[in-house]
Amino acid sequence: MPRFPQTADRIQHLEGSVFEKFREKMKAQGDKLVRLHIGDTYLQPVYSLPINSSFMEQHRMFHRYCHTYGIDRIRKALVTKLQEDNHLPVSVDNILLTSGATNALSIAVHTLVNPGEDVLVLTPAWPFFFGMVNMAGAKVIEVPFYTRLFHNPDFSISEYLARYLTPQTVAIYVNTPNNPSGKVLDAQQLQQIGEFARQHRLWIISDEAYDGLTYDGRPHISIGQLPGLFDQTLTVFTFSKIFMFAGLRLGYLVASSEMIHACNRTLVHQLYSPSTLAQYMMIDPIQTRHQWMPRVQRHYQELRDRFIHGLEISVPVPEGTYFIFFSLKPFLNGRDYWQLFHQLLENGVSVAPGQDFGRDFQDYVRLCFTGEPPERLQIAIDRLNRFFKTLC
Amino acid sequence: MPRFPQTADRIQHLEGSVFEKFREKMKAQGDKLVRLHIGDTYLQPVYSLPINSSFMEQHRMFHRYCHTYGIDRIRKALVTKLQEDNHLPVSVDNILLTSGATNALSIAVHTLVNPGEDVLVLTPAWPFFFGMVNMAGAKVIEVPFYTRLFHNPDFSISEYLARYLTPQTVAIYVNTPNNPSGKVLDAQQLQQIGEFARQHRLWIISDEAYDGLTYDGRPHISIGQLPGLFDQTLTVFTFSKIFMFAGLRLGYLVASSEMIHACNRTLVHQLYSPSTLAQYMMIDPIQTRHQWMPRVQRHYQELRDRFIHGLEISVPVPEGTYFIFFSLKPFLNGRDYWQLFHQLLENGVSVAPGQDFGRDFQDYVRLCFTGEPPERLQIAIDRLNRFFKTLC
Fold it and tell me: Which of A8, A15, A63 sits opposite B45 (nearest CB)?
């Protein structure tokens, strides 16, 4: 038993922040370091934010607990957004406000999965999802997926997924636009995943944190909008990415009203209620999104292009998100991955290690092209080019 | 297996918001209803809040993720507060910012307790703590405690607690000032609980959400300040109570640096990081607390006194928190508890049902005396007096 001073078993093998282990080394570099390791944006929110003297007068209840599902006004604004942008058949009862997408995913996992059960995770995948499944006492089955779609977009997904299915599998985790690969799934690919899930009665956990962040006119498609899939899908959104406000910790979960009710029971035991202040701040930005979102998308696409074209090595071009994900294998030439990783850090560029995104990506790195202002990004490109030149 | 459309077992017996079941009935009454059921304050924060046009200039990083432990400046401000007010031997490494006390307690439970283990819960206790323990797959052992201290403050606590101990017990949940009873534990009582925990190597989860809310000059004592207990204790604080800002969802956990590190691993899987915006907002109020806290304490004490003296029935006088907790038994005269409870609601006063606070409190009600402005509180007092008169 984990009596003092031991902790519970479930956290023994849990990783903390992915970047914790490099924190000291990064700190030592100070401002010199160009930080491409974290998924964030250098932009302050480009929409008007109600952080002003009339806020407290206008929202007299800002400081109090709200309804544990979220306040009515933001849920109504989200209904319009979800219908118009995501074509999801929602009403207010299909929406639960959460403290960011992380919180929404944790709630989804704990509401759906029993100890001893399995969850199919299409990889590469966001690192903390693995730990969430483990925290619930369940097991992750990794399914290498997104990166191979770049080379072979038409392989038979249903057949492929069936190879990984176990009798204990109860859910599948899908993430489009995909962090870290930048892959955006198309309707046909999602249809196959959906068909597979329906056939095996698997819950679909659809992580759409990068909703709105697609390039070259590619649409973002919510799997829950496909015929017959809404009730079987829990879709996760956030204000941390296209809304440029990760520091707010606000997100939302979309599902059938029965499932939202079940998720609320989990939420009150992790959070009690979402932040009232944060919700009041996001009502206007949701409603004005068509005025500012295209500008942000264009800017990020420009940053992506600048990065891709500036780099003298060839990498898969992300279709969405703000990441570049590629293998260091061609540059190893007998060298150790971690040796290169740390050299990169010493050369003033921090990146995220591939192993955190899945077992099959040990030789990959992920770089974020929006976390630093363009002039700093250029410094990173120059450093990366010099670095890779020394390796060839 | 909980395949679509079933959910996980752990939430089958979980309650949602305590008040969900009365929501429609309460809604039907509209503004007429005086709401004493929820623990909140009618006061807008009395300190100066940096919700103004210079906020974004002053805190350029407000919109971004922060260090998952919290930002340095608020952790430093809290070190001073914890040393001065709570006499806890802390440095920055002993503090983890969370999304409110609920989140901090959930993190503590999941970091400490394995499935199949037991947690001693001194009752009456905050309803969601029971569910948190169940979500972790563990069992609550209820120990009727706080209410009997009003009648018998000197009973032998160690002997009494030993009666409830099982071989599977790994932690004890203590809450002072106690929600709902208003009991404030003194040094001698805490010493006995601490001695018991040390003897049996139980973790102490000390819920101090009502830190700062004690009356008649009674001190609030953190159990972690007692000799030899700091390393064995996880202490939970919040900005929702004396800071009057439940809508911010900010709280913090205090423990040994090893335990903070372990709790951070749980936090990143529930929340990723605490709200950057929320943390920047609370730095000044922490530092100016001596200027405004005494005023709030005095005001709440006045409200308590007005309530206690206005009521024509006799109830235990709370020593802290903002609740009155008493049994309806003397008024039942053969009537059903729930009949009275609903009549009270129909008479325009909502209260929280006792059963949610523990098995032994089925005939109790909890009333909050700070959630409505004084003139509305007076209306509630008049209604309660008329109501109880009809019962005698």
Answer: A63
Interface contact flag, A8 B114, Cβ < 8 Å:
yes
Are B268 and A68 within 8 A, CB to CB? no
Spatial separation of the C-alpha atoms in residues B80 and B94, rounded to whole Å: 12
Where among A232, A263, A289 does a domain terminate?
Answer: A289
Q: Is the dihedral of CA B328, B330, B336, B339 positive or negative?
A: negative
CATH number of the domain where residue A87 is located:
3.40.640.10
CB contact under 8 A, B262 and A11: yes
Token pair belonging to A322: 């703000």
- Classify residue A57: in a domain, yes or no: no
On chain A, the residues whose CB falls within 8 A of the CB of B278 are: 249, 275, 277-278
Q: Which residues of A touch B93 (CB under 8 A)?
A: none
Residue A279: inside a domain, yes or no? yes
Among chain A residues, the shortest Cα distance to B251 is held by: A271
What are the distances in angstroms from CA B113 to CA A270, B77, B103, B110, B270? Answer: 15, 31, 15, 6, 16
Give the minimum alpha-carbon distance from A315 to chain B in angstroms, rounded to a whole number.
Answer: 27
Same domain, B234 and B366: no
Distance CA A95, CA A78 (A): 8
Residues B202, B311, single domain; the answer is no
Number of domain units in chain A? 2
Judge if B144 and B269 occupy the same domain.
yes
Q: Give SS3 for A158.
A: helix
Q: What is the residue range of B13's domain? A: 9-45+291-391
pLDDT in tens, chain A (392 residues): 558 889 999 988 787 766 777 888 888 889 999 999 999 999 999 999 989 889 999 999 999 999 999 999 999 999 999 999 999 999 999 999 999 999 999 999 999 999 999 999 999 999 999 999 999 999 999 999 999 999 998 899 999 999 999 999 999 999 999 999 999 999 999 999 999 999 999 999 999 999 999 999 999 999 999 999 999 999 999 999 999 999 999 999 999 999 999 999 999 999 999 999 999 999 999 999 999 999 999 999 999 999 999 999 999 999 999 999 999 999 999 999 999 999 999 999 999 999 999 999 999 999 999 999 999 999 999 999 999 999 87
To the nearest whole Å, the CA of B3 is away from the closest chain A CA by 5
Chain B neighbors of A9, CB-CB under 8 A: 114
The verdict on a CB contact (< 8 Å) between A132 and B269 is: yes
Residues in CB range of A87: below 8 A, 6 or more apart: A222, A225
| Distance between A326 CA and the closest CA of chain B, angstroms | 24
Contact A96, A236 (CB under 8 A): no
Ordered DSSP codes for A40-82: --SSPPSS----STTHHHH-TTTTS---TT--HHHHHHHHHHH
Q: Residues B275, B325: one domain?
A: no
Report how far residue A10's alpha carbon sits from residue B112's, in angstroms, rounded to the nearest whole number: 9
Nearest by CB to residue B100, choosing from A115, A259, A271, is A271
Query: Which of chain B's residues have a Cβ under 8 Å away from the Cβ of A2?
Result: 112-114, 117, 170
